[in-house]
Amino acid sequence: HPLIRAAVVALATAGERRSAHRRLASVHPEDAERRAWHLAEATVEPDAAIAGLLERAARRIRRRGDAVGAIGWLTRAADLHPDARARNRLLVEAAHLGADVAGDLGFASQLLAAADGGGPTADESLVAALTAATVLLCADGDIETGHRLLLAAIERRLDERTTADPLMVQAFDNLRVVCQFGAREHLWAGLDAAALRLPADARDAVRWSVEVGDDPARASAEALRHLDDAVAALAHEGDTTVVARVVPQAFYVDRLPGCRTALRRTVALGRDGTAVVPGMYALVLLAFDRYWAGDWEEASELAAEGAVGSEAIGFGVLSWPAWYCQALLAAGRGEDQAVRSLTDRMVGASAPRGARMVEVFAHHVLALAALGRGDAETAYDHASRVSPPGTFPSRVPVAVWCALDLVDAAVRTGRPEAAAAHAAAMRDAGLAAISPRLALVLGASAAMAADDDRSPALFDDALATPGAHRWPFDVARVELAHGERLRRAKATGDARTHLAAALATFERIGAAPWAQRARTELRAAGRASAPTHRPSLDDLTPQEHEIATLAASGLTNKQIGERLFLSHRTVGAHLYRIFPKLGITSRAALRDALGD
After folding, report:
1. Distances from the Cα of 224 to the Cαs of 173, 397, 411, in angstroms?
2. Cβ pair 361, 346 in contact under 8 A
3. N or C terminus: fewer CB in 10 A for the chain?
């Protein structure tokens, strides 16, 4: 009985337990991790060999995604190592995992304080700086101080080392994020100067990540190919640090759909406590993916979970992206009070820390909200603060997201020159080559800025963009603009077709103010209401279709959740929304509905 076994161990003396561990270590020579653990439990004196076994085991555990487990092994290795410098190195590494992965800022600070012996090497200094910067930025620190810590450690390591490795790439990536949120030229100047001292291969990796992650309007084809290769490799990547580094680069260039499997796997690791911080990042990134995919209910759930979880572990810096996603959803739904509350919170929390880019995010949200309620002048004011007409500011990545808002607002406020200039800037930047969504946006912007003779063909070309259907909100906005333009040109029959399509999508995803605009236009085009909508598989998002197919095959909600890294409650909520879309009322009818 388990209680008997527990009692035997509890009643044994310390010497008897150590003897048992030594014997168990001898019968597991092929299991390196189990043998290392038993040897460590059998040891009371410092032992460099056993500490080395523990350290190697920690590396393997970390690669499998269990950062919390790796921290325990590293700290035990530090306890057993006789050399002060080695103890320092192990404690610093454990502190880094504690702050950057496990999300325990207090414990990480304690480990850093304990790691004070032997004088740090350049590697240890860099890891300590990464950890200290994380603790500082997520607590009460500011962008400038975090930048200074990271840059100084990077420069010291460059003075002592002539080759780059994943640690250096990670340090540059963290510095890049600090520079992006700080949005000040002198911050970027420090990163650029340090990057020039890197070996060529590492310099390219840093340049590519800056291009696609911070300046997508200037991303080269080479950088995008490099990112596509990295995204493809995520399907089999178990290291959450790698996932956390690659996926944010995919954010602004519409590569999130290819990251879904890795994101859901990371969310699952975060929920079970083995990779808390990457799990929080993944929640928010997955929320944005669901937002763009038109699954606003799940996006709302994920963003809320990310915001609450980030605040619970004291990672305020992670709350900004979650609030941004929540604010975009509120803007799309016409919830103006929530928009104001969330954008005020974003700016209020970030301004004291010098995170100026968060204010740019807030302007994007406010522009979208104003367009939804028909206030084009306010929308133009906010959108032009993100990106002045005819330009894409360097290293303001959200400018590519706000491009359609700016052109739309410019046209509606009687600024055709500004609309045309921005459409031309989008064409000159080659946005169409970045993603189908940006190709759709570019085509629609050109159509909005064109005269009445050329506009219909340009709109049709934009809507024919291969793959654009994966971004239903953007497609519906283009359908609405096309229908409005056709109605004013007296082509009411064609106008009704596009307006009805826009209305159906807006209603399905929950974009209430946009749906009302489409209804108003339909009435003006001579139709009192949209035609009766017939249930169709096209109404399902890709994830809903996958859940419906699995449910129809006989899997339970729990089994579906395990396969898709979702909770059984989330699966149930999806099915609740799927049934009316397919015109059915029960799970038993799913197979026939999918077959039809």
Report:
1. 17, 15, 32
2. yes
3. N
Contact 473, 509 (CB under 8 A): yes
Strand, helix or coil for residue 545: helix
Q: Determine the pLDDT at residue 532.
A: 47
DSSP state of 118: S
Q: Are 69 and 104 in contact (CB under 8 A)?
A: no
* C-alpha to C-alpha distance for 469 and 465, rounded to whole angstroms: 8
**Prediction pTM value:** 0.81
Give the other-Cβ count within 10 Å of 319's Cβ. 23
Residues 510 and 299: beta-carbon distance below 8 Å = no
Distance CA 503, CA 472 (A): 11
pLDDT digits (tens, 9 = 90+) for 10-48: 999 999 999 999 999 998 888 888 999 999 999 989 999
Which parts of 430-491 fold into alpha helices (H)?
436-449, 455-463, 472-488
Question: Using an 8 Å Cβ cutoff, are 183 and 361 in contact?
Answer: no
In DSSP notation, 156-216 reads HHHHH-SS--HHHHHHHHHHHHHHHHH--HHHHHHHHHHHTTS-HHHHHHHHHHHHHHH-G
Cα→Cα distances 159→186, 194, 213, 233, 557, Å: 21, 11, 27, 32, 56
Q: Which helix (H) or strand (E) holds 284?
A: helix 276-292
SS3 of residue 397 by DSSP: coil
Chain centroid to CA 86: how far? 35
| pLDDT tens digits for range 333-361 | 999 999 999 999 999 989 888 999 999 99
The Cα 296–Cα 577 span in angstroms is 12
Question: Do 243 and 263 touch, CB atoms closer than 8 A?
Answer: yes
Closest listed residue to residue 302, CA positions, set 565, 103, 544, 555: 565
